[in-house]
Amino acid sequence: MSEKNFILPNKLEIEKRYESYRPAFNEILDKIENLLKQKINLPSNPTYKARIKSFPSYYKKILRQKAKESSESIELVTLTDMIGIRVICAFVEDLALVEKQVVESFDVKEIERKGADQSFKEFGYESVHILIAIPENCLPESGISPELRKNLVCEIQVRTILQDAWAEVEHELIYKSEFNPFDKPLRRKLASINASLTLADIIFQEIRDYQKKLQTELGERRNSFYEKADEFSEEMLGQSHHQVADSSIIGSPFSKGSIDDLVLTALHEHNTGNFKKAVEIYTQIINSEPVPPAMVLSVIYKHRGMAYFAQSLYEQALNDFKKSVEYDPKCFRSIYYEGIVYSVQGKDKEAVECFDNSLAIDAFQSHVYYRRALALFNIGNYTKAMEDVNNALKLGLENEDLNTLKLKLIKKFDMNM
């Protein structure tokens, strides 16, 4: 472009024009951020960072990309990244969920995956950039020209915490300082740091996946334990108990390497009704070398006790729950499970003592109040039993058996009046 035909942009005029829109941009970003918080639903709440491009960065970019337009236009020349919001997620799996929810909730103009085509030797940051049109309800009533209303977009950047950390550092070291590391040792260092962060993201995701599997298996196992205990309670209250469908015994989908893998495999065998196999694996973990930490042994004894309980092997179950408490005296669930075994065995006084001890550690267990109420009812302490029924109700327990027990207690009080 020759100097004769080119009018140089007036930096002061452009800056004045740009800064005049800052209040409007802030209003738009606040409204879009609020919309994003309403629309994005993740297990771990993301962090949001809204930003308006600084004028020096804006000016450098328009000189590179839109110099002619900026020198001729009386309107503000727009860039796609003038205003933006980062959605910073905890885990890699969250990125696709956020992208999907943004696409479903906004008018998306473009999606770009930064760094997706880089080799492992390169050190650029990774990020998903989604350009959205500004929703009508996010535009200010005044202060924005019709032309700007039409052209303005907001850039939504979706990253993990580690991707964002790397992007911030890279921006300071390379982009912002206009420094490009050509020497190989420095490039290798940067590539190594980037690779380490990427690997950390992958490992965090693997841990997250493991936790999900573990929680699913634990939930199923705990439900089956309570169902068996409920059968006994329903019989005691004179109700016909529901039938629990038999679980088909299938092969475990989990590998059998570390203790973590063995725990998942044992829980899976437990949940699919293969109790003997589950006990075998729990025992393998207990007897493993080196000896597992006390906290691990407490958990495994508790699980094995539940597997014994499912087979009606009550003495073995009781011994394992006691062992669990030996290794972790604060394990209120194992103490509670001891009480359930005593209840099934008809030893209500011992059961009440266990329920007392469990509630002394955690007083907010609605089911323990209910179980203690049952045991107190059996030994004739109706006043205290009614107190426990009311405590269970206060804590939000909704249980047909609880209501049945309350009616039985009311009848007892009526008979004694």
TrEMBL record:
<feature type="domain" description="RelA/SpoT">
    <location>
        <begin position="50"/>
        <end position="181"/>
    </location>
</feature>
<keyword id="KW-0802">TPR repeat</keyword>
<dbReference type="InterPro" id="IPR007685">
    <property type="entry name" value="RelA_SpoT"/>
</dbReference>
<dbReference type="GO" id="GO:0015969">
    <property type="term" value="P:guanosine tetraphosphate metabolic process"/>
</dbReference>
<dbReference type="InterPro" id="IPR043519">
    <property type="entry name" value="NT_sf"/>
</dbReference>
<feature type="repeat" description="TPR">
    <location>
        <begin position="366"/>
        <end position="399"/>
    </location>
</feature>
<dbReference type="InterPro" id="IPR019734">
    <property type="entry name" value="TPR_rpt"/>
</dbReference>
<feature type="repeat" description="TPR">
    <location>
        <begin position="298"/>
        <end position="331"/>
    </location>
</feature>
<dbReference type="InterPro" id="IPR011990">
    <property type="entry name" value="TPR-like_helical_dom_sf"/>
</dbReference>
<protein>
    <submittedName>
        <fullName>RelA/SpoT domain protein</fullName>
    </submittedName>
</protein>
<dbReference type="Pfam" id="PF04607">
    <property type="entry name" value="RelA_SpoT"/>
</dbReference>
<dbReference type="Pfam" id="PF13181">
    <property type="entry name" value="TPR_8"/>
</dbReference>
<dbReference type="InterPro" id="IPR052366">
    <property type="entry name" value="GTP_Pyrophosphokinase"/>
</dbReference>
<dbReference type="Pfam" id="PF00515">
    <property type="entry name" value="TPR_1"/>
</dbReference>
